[in-house]
Amino acid sequence: MANESNKKRPAILILGAPGSGKGTQGKALGMVPRFFHCACGDVFRALDTRSELGQKFVEYSSKGQLVPDELTIELWQAQINTWKEGNQYFPETDILILDGIPRNVEQAEILQEYIQVEHIFHLSCPDRSELARRMRKRALRENRMDDASDAVIEDRIRTYEAETKPILDFYPEAIRTDIDATQQPIKVMSDIINKIITLPIYKEMDKVSI
Question: What is the pTM of this model?
Fold first, then answer.
């Protein structure tokens, strides 16, 4: 029998190209009781670089290299346990909201050991020019001028298409909801919530006292 740290935890994935608004939606959901938002960037930012795992991360990040899939999930699992031990995340009552992780099919395969994906929200935006506009606007707002260049934006979208979007075919279509990401964020949020409250896992969690 798996110990508590390895017990599969219910999760909802938010997938979408850069600029589709998945981070915005994930953060908003994470403010609602019974939901815990975890973005890949949160894991890396919370990392103690003095720890053994942290040193492994630094080996790659200091060279500008991508962190290997196995190490990424190991870091994710360690941080989830830290949040649990710190009484920030309660696996008995909280549903994980993941964005930015898994990054590819290989990570999705590894994550099967740790999570039970209850549903996937695909924020769809076929208009790549709209994605580019949003990414450029965000980069300028956050004073990240390099990220506003056409070359960087095109590369990020191309990487998503090649590495992350295939995740949609990894999971059963029956647990996926496609949402028009070009709508106003409040409408996207409404579509997500209206679906979540129909999910069996939500109804089950709703029976548990806070």
Answer: 0.89
Gap between the Cα atoms of 21 and 17, Å rounded: 8
Question: What are the phi and psi torsion angles at 136 (to 5°)?
Answer: -65, -45
User: The domain 8-205: what is its CATH number?
Assistant: 3.40.50.300
Domain extents for the chain? 8-205
| Closest-CA residue to 169 (of 83, 78, 104, 114) | 104
Tens digit of each residue's pLDDT (9 = 90 or more) over 161-176: 999 999 999 999 999 9
Cα 23 to chain centroid distance, Å, stands at 8
Q: What is the CB neighbour count within 10 angstroms for residue 170?
A: 15
Q: Cβ distance 76 to 5 under 8 Å?
A: no
| DSSP 8-class letter at 46 | T
pLDDT digit string, tens, across residues 114-157: 999 999 999 998 888 888 888 888 888 888 877 778 888 889 89
Q: How many CB atoms lie within 10 A of CB 59?
A: 12
**What one-character DSSP code corresponds to residue 18?**
T
Three-point CA angle 34, 37, 43, nearest 5°: 140
Integer angstrom CA distances of residue 185 from 82, 125, 182: 31, 13, 8
Question: From CA 85, how far away is CA 100, in angstroms rounded?
Answer: 23
Question: Is residue 9 helix, strand or coil?
Answer: strand
In Å, what is the CA distance from 53 to each residue of 1, 49, 60, 79, 90? 26, 7, 12, 11, 23
